[in-house]
Amino acid sequence: MQGLRIKEENMDGNYLIVGHSVSLFSWGELVAIYFDPSPGGKETSVEVVSKAKVRTNIFAPKWEDKFLETLQGLVREDR
What is the pLDDT of residues 12-45, one digit of tens each? Predict the structure, then answer.
């Protein structure tokens, strides 16, 4: 996603943390993406949690929906 950078990558722990720092419109956000592959390997559950770095940051985008929509589009293209 545009403007976000990888902050922490842990494929053994099945998660990725991305974020961005202060901008003109935001104090910054952190987004955690958790992957939970099924035992058979045919499906993977994905959970996206977005948190503003400052609680009063009412302009922080809702990254959860953006990530999941992008992921759905990528999965559809791959089929």
Answer: 999 989 888 777 766 778 889 898 888 887 888 8
Say how far apart CA 71 and CA 8 lie, in whole Å: 19
For residues 53 and 28, the answer to whether their CB atoms sit within 8 Å is yes
Tell me the backbone φ, ψ of residue 78, rounded to 5 degrees.
Answer: -80, -15
Which amino acid is it at 11?
M
Widest Cα–Cα separation across the chain:
45
DSSP of 48-62, one letter per residue?
EEEEESSTT-TT---
Q: Which residues make Cβ contacts (< 8 Å) with residue 8, sequence separation at least 6?
A: 15, 16, 17
pLDDT at 13: 92
Q: Where are the alpha helices (DSSP H) in 1-79?
A: 63-78
pTM: 0.69
With H, G, I as helix, E, B as strand and everything else as coil, classify residue 77. helix
